[in-house]
């Protein structure tokens, strides 16, 4: 029975990916598919930047986690002692993690349990990684009260997770292909808790765009950036983010030295250029490291013989890599390849 359910769910999720949905809409629909078979009180899915392994988008199930608990959930995600954080699971390639499998000591020190789930009357949590061919595209947290997640439910989720990862990878390509000309660069100054102290007018535009996709999402992303800046090194903290409607941004956060209050953080939000998404697209299309190298050389305008010299391979090897890349990306010429991997933003009608 569970095998049939998993098979049906994989088929439905594959159909969703093929329908051209972006990541936000895909995850919203997939949450309903999975929720039909695995019952929860609350569920939250996060899209991960596959290179930085940082949360770049959050989609909540229905009902949504109460808004007052969202900042506490973000804080726990960036705590160095928190078990089963999404980032840690991605780095360890850990596909599933149940809170009930923790030792009593680790369970009691979990900020998620003590500060979020316990006050909400929830005591069972399962975390699931969406990994495809060694690349992590997202993760999910499923929470409920009472009975623990069963072995059959774990088997079901383990069987469905790769399909979700592959669908997310396809949806990322869809989002980037539909990328619009974005808003102007923005600056937000946050206090140590991730609450805005000041912001440029352009930041309000981004706030409206994100909150139209999911109410309260801008505040959650600012909390993520504040926590990331507090735990990162001198180089600061960054991630890429989609508003779920075709606009992508690069967010960079760094601690302010000599700010009015200790722990102040400056966050810049800037629409991405085509080349800033190229590395994500190379991963999203499943290109090998050598195929990616050849594609980067092609995008730089080099001929086959020059690429061969740069990469210390024969021209025939370059052509073999290009043939493979063409097949994976779905193009038939170098010009089409460049256009697909360096998409130009479309200008919304009326502008």
Automatic annotation (TrEMBL):
Keywords: DNA-binding, Transcription, Transcription regulation
Keyword DNA-binding: yes
GO BP terms in the entry: regulation of DNA-templated transcription
A matching Pfam family: GerE
Limits of the HTH luxR-type domain: 301-328
Cited InterPro entries: Sig_transdc_resp-reg_C-effctor, Tscrpt_reg_LuxR_C, WH-like_DNA-bd_sf
Any one GO molecular function term: DNA binding
Record carries keyword Transcription: yes
Name assigned to this protein: LuxR family transcriptional regulator
Protein species of origin: Mycetocola zhadangensis
């Amino acid at each position: 029975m569970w095998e049939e359910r998993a098979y049906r769910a994989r088929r439905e999720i594959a159909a969703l990916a093929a329908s051209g949905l972006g990541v936000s809409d895909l995850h919203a629909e997939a949450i309903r598919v999975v929720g039909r078979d695995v019952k929860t009180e609350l569920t939250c899915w996060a899209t991960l930047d596959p290179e930085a392994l940082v949360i770049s988008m959050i989609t909540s199930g229905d009902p949504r986690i109460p808004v007052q608990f969202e900042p506490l959930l973000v804080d726990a995600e960036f705590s160095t002692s928190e078990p089963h954080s999404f980032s840690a699971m991605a780095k360890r390639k850990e596909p599933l993690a149940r809170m009930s499998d923790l030792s009593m000591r680790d369970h009691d020190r979990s900020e998620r349990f003590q500060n979020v789930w316990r006050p909400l009357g929830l005591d069972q949590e399962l975390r699931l990684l969406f990994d495809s061919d060694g690349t992590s595209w997202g993760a999910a947290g499923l929470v409920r009260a009472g009975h623990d997640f069963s072995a059959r439910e774990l088997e079901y989720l383990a069987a469905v997770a790769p399909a979700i990862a592959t669908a997310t990878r396809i949806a990322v390509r869809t989002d980037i292909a539909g990328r619009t000309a974005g808003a102007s660069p923005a600056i937000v100054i946050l206090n140590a808790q991730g609450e805005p102290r000041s912001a440029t007018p352009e930041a309000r535009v981004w706030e409206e765009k994100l909150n139209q996709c999911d109410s309260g999402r801008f505040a959650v992303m600012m909390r993520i950036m504040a926590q990331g800046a507090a735990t990162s090194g001198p180089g600061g903290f960054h991630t890429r983010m989609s508003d779920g409607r075709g606009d992508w941004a690069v967010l960079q956060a760094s601690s302010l030295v000599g700010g009015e209050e200790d722990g102040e953080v400056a966050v810049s939000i800037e629409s991405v250029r085509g080349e800033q998404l190229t590395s994500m697209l190379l991963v999203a299309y499943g290109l090998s490291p050598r195929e990616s190298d050849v594609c980067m050389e092609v995008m730089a305008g080099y001929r086959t013989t020059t690429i061969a010299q740069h990469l210390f391979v024969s021209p025939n090897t370059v052509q073999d890599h290009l043939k493979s890349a063409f097949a994976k990306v779905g193009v038939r010429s170098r010009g089409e390849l460049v256009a697909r991997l360096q998409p130009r933003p479309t200008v919304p009608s009326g502008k």
